[in-house]
Amino acid sequence: MENKFKIYNTLTKQVETIKPNEDGKIAMYTCGPTVYHFAHIGNLRSYIMEDVLEKSLRFVGYDVKRVMNITDVGHLSSDADTGEDKMLKGAKREHKTVMEVAKFYTDAFFADCAKLNIKTPDVVEPATNCIDEFINMITVLLEKGYAYQAGGNVYFDTSKLNDYYVFSSQSEKELLVGVRDDVEEDTNKRNKNDFVLWFTKSKFEDQALKWDSPWGVGYPGWHIECSCISMKHLGEYMDIHCGGVDNIFPHHTNEIAQSESYLGHKWCNYWFHVHHLNDKSGKMSKSKGDFLTVSLLEEKGYNPLVYRMFCLQSHYRKPLEFSYEVLDQMVKTYDKLARKTRSLKNDGEVDKQVYDAFRLKFEDALCNDVNTSMAITVLYDLLKADTNDATKRKLVEDFDQVLSLGLLSAADEKASEQETNGADNELTAYVEEMIAKRAQAKKEKDFAKADAIRNELLEKGIAIKDTREGVVWERV
Ligand code: AMP
Ligand code: ZN
After folding, report:
1. Nearest atom (ligand 1) to Cα of 278
2. In terms of residue numbers, what domain contains 64?
């Protein structure tokens, strides 16, 4: 088939036309969540945009196979393999076992994805399913001289590569992003950016998940899982690898290092990275513990698809700042759009010429480095176009295979929900203002005022609750 789909490739720093390894097929891999906590809406921005990429590729005719891992072992609080084990941290926080925590947050992740109309990838594989594959790859890396044992652990030796810093021309020092000052340095490492392939260090004795290996009882490092899981399901050649920009270094850099050293040839041709969602205080981060979730948005009365639309309105390669003001605007925009698409009648013949022309315009937007806001503009142009409802309806149906905003199938339900929410906007704004005032009062240690605000809200039938994810409110 004709290749016309262009994306920005982080590897070459250019917008390139995708030429798949196999004609008409795309092998795609997505770094999955670390399941020690809820996904925040920043994480979900990445998954929404990767979902759009997958659906866009299908839309233009590719047969896509997409694989995603679930990180349920091995990810430490610093991406440079130091600090606390994230899964253990979750288990301690919740007085549960690591596997209970993994199951709970994996389910929660897919529940959030469903609410955002994110399709589940064709293959989803938890890291703990693939220990044999990890051991095999590490064994080969040791045999080939790319890895070494030190202090009980197995490390990848980055000095063995001429081009370890494939994504960047920055110096080694500048790239030490994962290493924080408060985390001790791992003195076993021969080079600063060497990374752990297998841990047996006694420091992690309380790690519940341990497996026997040729190097002792222990568990895998974080990076190895993506190399092994992708090869298990997609083979030795991959077309597109996705993740958020924070994955570029060290995670994706390390994935390439170990995969290509193991395979002896180039592994993945295109690297697609989604920029971060930030809040006013900076990057939204799970480890900070204070973040926005889909459930929190729902509790505040927002339809999750409004958040999806918020993400689609901006390009994936630009940082995006979250604010309730913009989300409130988006509620109105979404509502209006859903009302328009919902009112399209299903009578008459589809005008083939108009249909083809609009479909092509929409495809062009997607093929132009997944230009989702341009794709939405095409949708608006269509709704204004001088053609019959049947043609419009058919095109909206097609476009929504990619946008997944529930524009037709779920339009009635979602739009009416939205209308109710629209009517509630004033109330929401008032409650938000009161919550902000109460937060300020608490900050100023004026607890009497804070309580008075809570009571005033209660009198109006609004109960507020302080949770780990922030203040939530409900009608009582
Ligand atoms: P994690 O669960 O921390 O492994 O992250 C899951 C995905 O979310 C990864 O692809 C990250 O790169 C991505 N990610 C993390 N923080 C953000 C953010 N603030 N905005 C967008 N994507 C993010
Ligand atoms: Zn990964």
Report:
1. 19
2. 7-274
Instruction: List average pLDDT for each run of 10 residues in the chain, which is 476 residues long.
Output: 97 97 98 94 98 98 98 76 78 87 95 98 96 98 98 95 84 48 72 92 68 92 96 98 96 97 98 94 70 93 97 97 95 94 90 98 98 98 96 97 87 46 65 85 86 85 75 76
Ligand nearest to the CA of 253: 2
Q: Which residue has the tokens 């005032």?
A: 437
- List pLDDT tens digits, range 426-445: 677 788 888 888 888 888 88
Ligand 1 site, residue 77, Cβ cutoff 6 A: no
Residue with token string 């389910």: 107
Domain boundary among 248, 274, 300: 274
User: Is residue 396 included in any domain, yes or no?
Assistant: no
Q: Is 37 in the pocket of ligand 1 (CB under 6 A)?
A: no
pLDDT tens-place string over residues 451-463 = 888 888 888 778 8
The pTM of the full predicted model, rounded to 2 decimals, is 0.84
Best probe residue, ligand 1, of 10, 41, 43, 279 (max atoms within 8 Å of C-beta): 43
Residue nearest to atom 5 of ligand 1 (CA): 33
Domain of residue 249, CATH code? 3.40.50.620
Cis amide bond preceding 33, omega within 30: no
The verdict on residue 441 lying in a domain is yes
Q: What is the DSSP string of 394-421?
A: HHHHHHHHHH-S-SSTTHHHHHHHHHHH
Distance 185 CA to ligand 1 centre (A): 25
The amino acid at 335:
D
DSSP category for residue 218:
B
- Which of 294, 324, 287, 322 lies closest to 435 in space, CA to CA? 324
Q: How far is the CA of 307 from the centre of ligand 2 (A)?
A: 25
- The answer to whether the CB of 31 is under 6 A from ligand 1 is yes
**Is 340 a member of any domain?**
no
Task: Report if residue 76 sits inside a domain.
Answer: yes
Domain count, the chain: 2
Q: How many angstroms does the Cα of residue 46 sit away from the middle of ligand 1?
A: 7
DSSP code of residue 252: I
